[in-house]
Amino acid sequence: MNTITIIGGGNLGKSIISGLVNSDLFEATDITVVDKSKYNLKEVEEKLGVSTSQHIIASIKNAKWVILCVQPRQLDAVLQEIKDTVTADQILISTVTGTSIAEINAVVPNNKVVRVMPNTGAAKKLSMTCIAANEDVKEELTTVQKMFDTIGKTLIIEERLMQAATVLGASGIAFFLRFLRAMIQGGIQMGFHPHEAQIIAVQTAIGAATLVAENGTHPEREIDKVTTPQGCTIEGLNEMEHQGLSSSVIKGVMASYEKINTIK
Ligand SMILES: NC(=O)c1ccc[n+]([C@@H]2O[C@H](COP(=O)([O-])OP(=O)(O)OC[C@H]3O[C@@H](n4cnc5c(N)ncnc54)[C@H](OP(=O)(O)O)[C@@H]3O)[C@@H](O)[C@H]2O)c1
Questions:
Q1: Is 9 flagged in the annotation as binding?
Q2: What is the residue with the minimal CA distance to atom 41 of ligand 1?
Q3: End-to-end Cα separation, the chain, in angstroms
Q4: Helical H runs in the chain?
Q5: Buried b (16+ CB within 10 A) or exposed e, 11-31
Q6: What is one Pfam family matched by this protein (predicted)?
Q7: Do 123 and 198 fall within a single domain?
């Protein structure tokens, strides 16, 4: 599998490194992390045993895989810095939101590029990572999928759906957490202490998601199982719908999608 260099050892970079180090795909010694921040580098070196550097050029020279893990506004500077050094056999993996394969290839035309969109669940090996590449990138796509399988679940999608994947998967973390917060607030109003309400709501959310994930059922099927006719669950569900729950979630997802398509 050869060596890998990660440019950007921030929030997401650290989660990816942790997954790769703890997998049987790479040894810690195969991985080099480049970051401007000495603090980030010290942390990954001490906790994960990977090599670190503040110099991009020297670090990518022997890498088969180069993961771009910087903020969108920082990507162009990184691409400009590496463009005369990268060789055509090096594969670029971009985590960067909103930058297309074509835009990356406009600066580094000879490299195969794979786009990935993980989420912060990666820190707990529960990421949902959507992956896209051009038609000619087949073997490498399979390897990249194996890499990201180490930090959660993966799905190969068409690149045209990458913005939608960002909203549903990456922003989705925030959407579910806001619903979780509302459940906790309801629990407090009924009489629980905040920490008790949080324990109950969080475990219930894990249970609900796991039922759907492991049973492979539609959510409504699992809802039917807890909805007694004329009972308290249907009363609550219908009131939530009268107040626009599903409609507001769908509208929120679409507002986020419209916004992401305007960000550059
Ligand atoms: N976090 C998520 O949930 C998530 C999910 C999916 C995709 N993404 C995407 O993943 C990318 C990284 O996100 P993140 O949250 O990990 O960002 P982050 O925490 O800001 O990490 C980026 C790191 O890269 C460093 N860096 C920037 N330019 C550099 C350069 N030229 N040389 C060396 N190091 C450099 C930054 O240093 P400085 O801070 O000093 O500039 C920072 O430590 C973003 O494009 C984001 O859109 C993130």
A1: yes
A2: 36
A3: 34
A4: 11-21, 38-48, 56-60, 72-82, 101-107, 139-149, 162-165, 172-190, 194-215, 219-225, 232-242, 245-260
A5: ebbbbbbbbbbeeebbeeebb
A6: P5CR_dimer
A7: no
Residues 14-36: pLDDT tens digits? 999 998 998 888 899 999 999 99
The ligand 1 atom at the shortest distance from the C-alpha of residue 40 is 43
Compute φ and ψ for 6, nearest 5 degrees: -110, 120
Model confidence at 1: pLDDT above 60: no
> In 10 A of CB 125, how many CB atoms?
16
40 annotated as a binding-site residue: no
Q: Do 55 and 145 sit in the same domain of this protein?
A: yes
**CA 167, CA 256: separation in Å to the nearest integer?**
6
What single-letter amino acid sits at 164? A
Tokens at 232, concatenated: 């308290």
Does residue 31 sit in the same domain as residue 138? yes
